[in-house]
Design goal:
single chain, 341 residues, alpha/beta, Rossmann fold, six-stranded parallel β-sheet, 14 helices, 12 strands
């Protein structure tokens, strides 16, 4: 079967959750718009994650559902749109059903056991590159969509930009100092760098650079953010309680971002901010900040590194014993990029 591009008027991309995962999936958008210039591109995500593709110049509409919703109402919502082409970038049992019953002539997903029935084009993970962002391009490759761009895309709104501007104005931030955002968030306990290590990293940076730290936090980060703030030699700035979009506006105001492997880390990379990712249980080759002006650190010598365990069964050595000299080598490299901008 070959796709006739003239038939394609409406495209649906399915990526339900993981704000970082959704942002990484936006690598497909410029390529799809180039190949199907006269088509609309829609996204199907869970309600909590829709901000990941809101305000995206290539996305015309976002359909949402909640994790506990039954599949039939979601299918009805999708069928009403009369899609010509559906990409299932998640390809789990639920999204496979949605894709199969979508009514689309062309249905594309990953070659996974028990789900092949749902698609008439199949791609295999890991055949386009090491990074998770590039895995999304597999589904474009199998229908011969030219890859003209590998940019991930996230845009802040004017309201979010103004929120960040007003906050920094209210605290009289000294703009001659480099503003370094630190993000203690992490979807798993084991991915979260311990406050004591954050304090060590920040204090070491302030020995060498005239900088101000802005602690960027979200729900569940309050305890770590407070511990970091109280432990630093020089009092940092603390971001106000904010929505995900407002937090992104603050990220955009920073000169440099240091973050755990998390959704906000991928936001920083998509906003083209020099970003340092701190890794332990996850593989940085697959999940690092996806931007040329970014980097990562990992304590690669440990026997248990990249364990993928949600909770560390040992003493969280991947974070607590992360050599500070490794961190500073990458900070120095990124600071050179900051000075050039």
């Amino acid at each position: 079967m070959k796709i006739n591009s003239n038939e394609i008027k409406k495209i649906l991309c399915i990526k339900p959750r993981g704000i970082g995962d959704i942002i990484l999936s936006t690598i497909v958008l410029e390529n799809l718009k180039s190949a199907f210039a006269h088509s609309e591109i829609h996204y199907l995500t869970e309600e909590f994650a829709k901000r990941a593709v809101e305000n995206n110049p290539f996305v015309s509409k976002i359909l949402t559902f909640n994790k506990k919703d039954f599949v039939l109402p979601i299918i009805r919502k999708v069928r009403k749109e009369n899609y010509d082409l559906v990409f299932d970038f998640w390809s789990n049992p639920k999204t496979a059903q949605i894709t199969f019953f979508s009514g689309a002539k062309y249905r594309i997903g990953y070659e996974k056991k028990g789900r092949k029935y749902a698609y008439n084009f199949l791609g295999r993970n890991g055949t386009m590159g090491k990074h998770a962002a590039e895995d999304n391009l597999v589904l474009l490759n199998i229908i011969d969509v030219p890859i003209i761009s590998k940019k991930i895309i996230f845009k802040t709104t004017e309201v979010e930009k103004e929120f960040a501007k007003k906050f920094l104005a209210s605290i009289n931030h000294q703009y001659e100092l480099k503003l370094i955002g630190i993000i203690p968030s992490g979807g798993w306990e084991s991915k979260r760098c311990d406050p004591v290590k954050w304090i060590e990293i920040c204090d070491e940076i302030q020995k060498k650079y005239q900088s101000h730290f802005l602690i960027l936090w979200g729900p569940g980060d309050e305890k770590d953010a407070k511990s970091i703030s109280e432990g630093l030699n020089r009092t940092p700035l603390m971001a106000p309680k904010s929505s995900f979009g407002e937090l992104s506006g603050l990220i955009e105001k920073c000169d440099l971002i240091i973050a755990n492997d998390s959704g906000p880390m991928h936001v920083a990379a998509a906003l083209r901010k020099p970003t340092l990712g701190i890794f332990g249980p996850t593989d940085p080759e697959a999940h690092r900040p996806f931007a040329e002006n970014s980097s990562y650190v990992i304590h690669s010598e440990l026997h248990c590194i990249k364990c993928t365990k949600l909770v560390c069964p040992y003493g969280h050595e991947c974070m607590l014993e992360l050599p500070i000299d490794k961190v500073m080598i990458e900070i120095e490299r990124l600071m050179k990029i900051v000075k050039q901008n």
